[in-house]
Write a structure and sequence with these properties.
Radius of gyration of chain A: 24 Å
Largest sheet of chain B: 5 strands, antiparallel
Distance between the termini of chain B: 24 Å
Helix content of chain A: 25-40%
Distance between the termini of chain A: 23 Å
Shape of chain B: globular
Structural class of chain A: alpha/beta
Strand content of chain B: 25-35%
Strand order of the largest sheet of chain A: 6-5-8-9
Number of strands of chain A: 11
Number of strands of chain B: 5
Order of helices and strands of chain B: EHHEEHHHEE
Number of helices of chain B: 5
Largest sheet of chain A: 4 strands, parallel
Helix content of chain B: 25-40%
Structural class of chain B: alpha+beta
Radius of gyration of chain B: 15 Å
Oligomer: heterodimer
Order of helices and strands of chain A: EHEEHEHEHEHEHHEHEHHHEHEHHHHH
Shape of chain A: globular
Chain lengths: 440, 147
């Protein structure tokens, strides 16, 4: 099978509750990597490459599919959270209505007992400018493939690794804001208090199950963290109480509206002064990746992909609706203005020193695998011919009763010996129609 | 057509001229077929770029066309034959930036005069036969083991 590179393979992050699953095929049809099957009309099972997109969780009407999330109960004990460095995603600022500003959220977190709270919005502005510099540099290289692809959404990176590996080169080696904040906060605290780096634990508050997974499992493409992660929805209730009782006037938030805006689709590229494009939603992302792989859109410098509709504010661990969050965010952007609050000359210097660069953790290194041998091509073609042959006899109703997402995938499964022709619900009719007497 | 190597896979696709809503579908199918056989990603990319460019040429200028995908032991061949108006001056059409596209096509983002030059760049060998009024035949080869 192509695209099943073992070093990026991880266990699926979803779990099927077999007592709740009735074997309908909504999740099978929703999965973008065609990883789910319902065999013998029983419960759904994840057999292939899961990219943590959460589509199956959203599709399941019986709530039988659940994300495997880390246990995060212990962070509410005061003695534990005092030592944690907390780094909330910028999405959290949109979740409390228009009267709560980013600074209030950050103060609310300190009142909860977190001693070290780090804002990401300022780093987002640094990141955007660094990306602008990187694009300018790579545009000067002859024949460098464009557009580049944003490294921020982890699902997009996994999707590319499985379905569009030729596009991996286009993901810039620039560290994402959450990576930069993690690295910098840890190293500063380490020098200030003389604590070993490994003993500083961060808590990331995120709207995104994929980020949670990436941090928990040290999965590529991000640098290993070994930190704690929790969903915004887990901390919402206690946090909103603290925000309502605020009595503090410290200032913890420093960015303009550009930095805050990166929580929504189009927000990341709003701070990048190049020819950019923002695409959100899983199916739209796949369509654009297909086009980019065919060499289209080369006049565009940079594409911001988010698999959640409207960007990270549509993530599964958010509390309020994505469109209301967007409204709050737009008001805040107006309030804080769109002029970045960074020193450009200083960022240029940091960029030259390599401050923004990261290795993409093994995922992007290495060249293409060697060309196929003749026997491998023959094998691949023979399989392809077998698939086409089987497909001729299938009804092509795309009904998925067999438990595969479509007739072609069913034919592939039959060709690989993972399904039987009799699994097709209309097989008896097809047999009559084509007068097939052979045992398949 | 000099094609003495024996095909071990042969697939044909129809391309409808002026059908902009479905333009690009044939090349996505070609791309999918090559990917599922397991060819390396650079080869798939080059072949699908050429499939796309030649498909768009047919959609914009050509007549009804057939795209044939041959795979033999050493190469992938894409053959596109149409019965359209043909190309008046092939050498001129191979120059970057030369285009006869209608203004409305340019409006849609096509017709920048990069089609044939792009095909030339991405193929290992490429032949074009065209006669005015009789149609165009484009044959593109991609070597599986590029030396």
């Amino acid at each position: 099978m192509p695209n099943s590179d073992p070093h990026i393979y991880r266990a699926p992050y979803v779990q099927v509750d077999e007592t709740l699953c009735n074997g309908c095929v909504l999740c099978v049809k929703a999965c973008p990597t065609k990883a789910i099957r319902v065999r013998d009309l029983k419960a759904a099972q994840v057999e292939g490459s899961c990219i943590n997109c959460g589509e199956c969780v959203r599709a399941c009407p019986r709530r039988a599919i659940k994300e495997i999330t880390p246990q995060s109960v212990d962070v509410f004990h005061k003695e534990v959270i005092g030592d944690l460095v907390v780094c909330p995603s910028t999405v959290i600022y949109t979740q409390f209505g228009e009267n709560v500003l980013p600074n209030d959220v950050l103060l609310g977190l300190t009142i909860m007992g977190f001693n070290y709270v780090h804002d990401q919005t300022y780093t987002s502005e640094l990141y955007q400018f660094a990306m602008e510099l990187y694009i300018g540099e790579t545009r000067k290289i002859a024949d460098f493939p464009f557009p580049l692809i944003s490294p921020i959404c982890p699902v997009v990176i996994w999707l590319i690794a499985y379905r569009f590996p030729s596009l991996l080169k286009r993901i810039p080696p620039i560290a994402t804001p959450r990576e930069i904040v993690t690295r910098e906060a840890k190293s500063r605290l380490s020098t200030k208090y003389g604590v070993e780096l490994e003993n500083i634990k961060m808590l990331h508050i995120t709207p995104c199950p994929a980020v949670m997974m990436a941090m928990k499992e040290n999965a590529p493409p991000y640098v290993p963290y070994g930190d704690r992660v929790m969903g915004i929805n887990n901390i919402y209730e206690p946090l909103i109480k603290n925000i309502q009782e605020l009595d503090d006037d410290r200032i913890l938030h420093h960015s303009s509206g550009v930095g805050i805006g990166s929580a929504m689709s189009g927000g990341e590229i709003a701070g990048i002064n190049r020819n950019c494009l923002a695409v959100s939603g899983l199916h739209q992302t796949i369509r654009y990746l297909e086009n980019i792989e065919m060499g289209l859109l080369s006049e565009v410098d940079y594409v911001e992909f988010r698999v959640c509709l409207e960007g990270c504010i549509g993530g599964p661990f958010t509390v309020i609706d994505r469109y209301r969050a967007k409204r709050h965010l737009q008001k805040m952007i107006q309030m804080f203005g769109v002029e970045k609050r960074i020193k450009y000359a200083y960022v240029r210097k940091l960029y030259k020193e390599g401050w923004f660069f990261t290795s993409r953790h093994g995922l992007l290194a290495g060249d293409d695998p060697p060309p196929l041998t003749t026997s491998a091509i023959l094998e691949g073609i023979e399989r392809q011919n077998r698939v086409e042959e089987i497909l001729k006899f299938l009804p092509r109703k795309e009904c998925s009763v067999c438990g595969c997402p479509d007739c072609r995938t069913f034919a592939e499964d039959v060709a690989d010996g993972r399904a039987k022709l009799q699994d097709c619900f209309l097989w008896e009719k097809q047999k009559e129609r084509f007068k097939i007497h052979l045992p398949p | 057509m000099p094609n003495d190597h024996k095909p071990i896979l042969l697939k044909t696709f129809e391309i409808m001229p002026r059908d902009f809503t479905r333009a690009g579908e044939v090349s996505i199918k070609v791309q999918g077929t090559l990917k599922s056989i397991g060819f390396n990603s650079d080869l798939v990319r080059r072949a699908s770029i050429c499939a796309y460019e030649s498909e768009m040429n047919v959609v914009m200028y050509g007549g009804e066309a057939i795209m044939v995908l041959f795979i033999s032991s050493d190469r992938i061949t894409l053959d596109v034959k149409d019965d359209g108006p043909g190309i008046e001056d092939v050498d001129l059409a191979l120059q970057e930036g030369y285009s006869t596209a209608l203004p409305e096509y340019r409006e849609m983002g096509f017709g920048a005069g990069m089609g044939l030059p792009n095909i030339k760049k991405n193929t290992d060998s490429f032949k074009i036969y065209s006669e005015k009024g009789k149609g165009t035949h484009l044959s593109m080869d991609f070597y599986i083991d590029r030396k």
